[in-house]
Write a structure and sequence with these properties.
8 strands, TIM Barrel, binds D-xylitol-5-phosphate, globular, 7 helices, alpha/beta, binds zinc ion, about 220 residues, 8-stranded parallel β-sheet
Length: about 220
């Protein structure tokens, strides 16, 4: 696979033209579509669910869809997103009672499984399930909204997560989500991250393929 994966977050897309926005950002060179699911319970916002994921698939989107669950409880929605055509499903360990079971549900559904860590959450929940993780996702903002400022202390945490993955010798992506821009993406990569989510830095005016491509190209560079 590719060394670095760029995953635009549709949270900053124009939801009234979602199919077109997703097509455009893929044409602009995005590798994966990051799909933020919030429930106004675990996270202070309400976004989209399996129905919208299914609609993107039925619209002809074949790129991987990376579902970021900011919901509690998680297990019922794992099943729904497996059926809706998700490729990766990640959840926050404190949002489910049986972390190992939820991870297993994702892999049993044929998807890649991830754990997500908020800025203040320790990486301990990953320790005994390293062999069951395809993605470790570090939040560099608090869940809820696009356009927040990157929290720099997550860079040291990323180095720690990179060591955990390398020590375990597993095939696991280290992903970061929140406030990633053209200006800080090099620091993020230097900390060992190989999958970058970006919402507001990519999806902004003018909402054209050319503009999305310019940002994605600069991020890759
Ligand atoms: C925050 C979401 C992020 C967000 C990223 O709760 O999980 O995926 O959309 O947006 P930016 O890149 O604008 O911080
Ligand atoms: Zn996200």
């Amino acid at each position: 696979g590719k060394k670095y994966i760029i995953a635009p977050s549709i949270l900053s897309a124009d939801f009234a033209r979602l199919g077109e926005e997703v097509e455009n950002v893929l044409r602009a060179g995005a590798d994966v579509i990051h799909f933020d699911v919030m429930d106004n319970h675990y996270a202070p916002n309400l976004t989209v669910g399996p129905l919208v994921c299914r609609a993107l698939r039925d619209h002809g989107i074949t790129a991987p869809i990376d579902v970021h669950l900011m919901v509690s409880p998680v297990d019922a929605l794992i099943d729904e997103f497996v059926k809706a055509g998700a490729s990766h499903i990640s959840f926050h360990p404190e949002a489910t009672i049986h972390v190992d079971r939820s991870l297993q549900l994702i892999r049993d559904g044929g998807c890649r499984a991830g754990l997500v860590f908020n800025p203040a959450t320790s990486l301990d929940a990953a320790r005994y399930v390293m062999d069951k993780l395809d993605i470790m996702l570090l939040m560099s903002v608090n869940p809820g909204y696009s356009g927040q400022k990157f929290i720099p202390s997550v860079l040291n945490k990323a180095r720690e997560a990179r060591r955990m993955i390398d020590d375990a010798g597993v095939d696991c992506r280290l992903m970061i989500d929140g406030g990633v821009t053209v200006d800080n993406i090099r620091d993020v990569a230097d900390a060992g991250v190989d999958m970058m989510v970006s919402g507001s830095a990519i999806f902004r005016a003018p909402r054209t393929v050319e503009s999305y491509k310019e940002t994605i190209d600069r991020m890759r560079a």
